[in-house]
Amino acid sequence: WITEFVHTNEDGVPVRDTVATGRYAERFGGQLVLVTGAGSGIGRATAFAFAEAGARVVAVDRDAEGAARTAEMSRLIGSPDAWAETVDVSDEQAMEKLAEKVAGEYGVVDVLVNNAGIGLSGSFFDTTPEDWKKVLDANLWGVIHGCRLFGKQMADRGQGGHIVNTASAAAYQPSKALPAYSTSKAAVLMLSECLRAELAGQGIGVSAICPGFVNTNITSTAHFAGVDATEEKRRQKRAARLYGLRNYPPEKVADAILRAVVRNQAVVPVTPEARGARLMARFTPRA
Ligand code: NAD
Fold first, then answer.
1. How far is the CA of 40 from the centre of ligand 1 (A)?
2. Looking at CB atoms within 10 Å, which of 55, 65, 182, 222 has the fewest?
3. Which atom of ligand 1 is nearest to the CA of 88?
4. What is 165-230 written as a DSSP string?
5. Is the pLDDT of residue 72 over 90?
6. From the CA of 9, how far away is ligand 1's center (Å)?
7. Helix axes 92-105, 142-157, angle to 10 degrees
8. What are phi and psi for residue 101, nearest 5 degrees?
9. β-bridge pairing 14-20 and 2-8
10. What is the ipTM of this complex?
């Protein structure tokens, strides 16, 4: 279900890329899907998968070039309409403007994917208040703004819809190496469950997606390097031994996101180690 397609890059050189395809062909035909953090990794793969399934896609990212590229490639994949919007999701006013623009120009969003996020490693006492603010602003406030603004439009329209929030296995797996990141994701998980209860009567589903380790920029760049990188590596090695951790591609997370919408799933651990950790979290007393 991962298909290769060929497109040309900025220099006109043909390159191969992949898209999660087939399973939901035409399932989202004509629906408006807004994905944040769509300029790279899981968000980009998700935009592609929705485009492939016939949706109109709004690719939002603070990285203008990344968002534009995702929109362009979504059109190539077959989305009748795909647009890019450059917005920092933690900026309340910018998000309000985006919500107004999207409603005015493209319509009410049918599926919202609050996926933008940043990583940060460092022990609790190495994490400065500025670090906390940066992570909570992007990972938690970005999701709050998205849910408030676009969720309200969905509710007011009265025709249902779906919100997907990208949490993480870190939301329920304590780690010495990632206190701020894990806290932000635990908050996203709880927010999603509360909102799911509130919106259930209005035909609006809310899903929290919890991937473990996925091969993207967030895991391969400096975000997760730093003082506790060795601890994080050790954890990954342990997970690899326990759950057969592999290079998990973002396309598989995208597939899980589309499935969560179709099946209206509440909490979705995605990678094998994320599923294992969710099970363990229920039965293991915490140290
Ligand atoms: P990524 O770095 O490839 O993509 C994240 C995208 O979000 C980037 O394009 C970035 O520019 C954008 N972004 C970050 N902050 C933003 C902001 N304030 N406003 C707008 N855009 C912003 O990483 P990814 O792995 O694709 O991450 C996507 C989501 O998945 C994140 O929320 C991340 O925490 C979560 N996640 C990732 C993993 C993993 O192992 N990769 C595991 C669990 C959860």
1. 8
2. 222
3. 19
4. EE--GGGTS--TT-HHHHHHHHHHHHHHHHHHHHHGGGTEEEEEEE--S--SHHHHSGGG-STTHH
5. yes
6. 23
7. 30
8. -65, -45
9. antiparallel
10. 0.99
Active-site annotation, residues: 181
Say how far apart CA 70 and CA 22 lie, in whole Å: 19
Mean pLDDT of the chain: 88
Task: Answer yes or no: is pLDDT of 242 > 60.
Answer: no
Q: How far is the CA of 117 from the centre of ligand 1 (A)?
A: 4
Q: What pLDDT score does 78 carry?
A: 82
Q: Which atom of ligand 1 is nearest to the CA of 142?
A: 18
What's the pLDDT tens digit per position in 48-62? 999 999 999 999 999
For a ligand 1 pocket test, name from 34, 36, 58, 61 the mutation site with the most ligand atoms within 8 angstroms of its C-beta: 61
CB of 180 closer than 8 Å to CB of 131? yes
**d(CA 285, ligand 1 centre) in Å:** 30
Closest ligand 1 atom number to CA of residue 139: 32
Q: Residue with the nearest Cα to atom 31 of ligand 1? A: 117
* pLDDT per residue as tens digits for the range 123-155: 999 999 999 999 999 999 999 999 999 999 999
- Positive/negative CA dihedral, 23, 27, 41, 123: negative
DSSP 131: H
pLDDT of res. 227: 38
For the ranges 15-19, 48-52, 219-223, the one whose mean pLDDT is highest:
48-52
> What pLDDT sits at residue 245?
53
- The best mutation among 40, 92, 253, 278 to test binding of ligand 1, ranked by most ligand atoms within 8 Å of the C-beta, falls on 40
Tokens describing residue 211: 């991937």
Lowest mean pLDDT among 11-25, 189-203, 248-262: 11-25
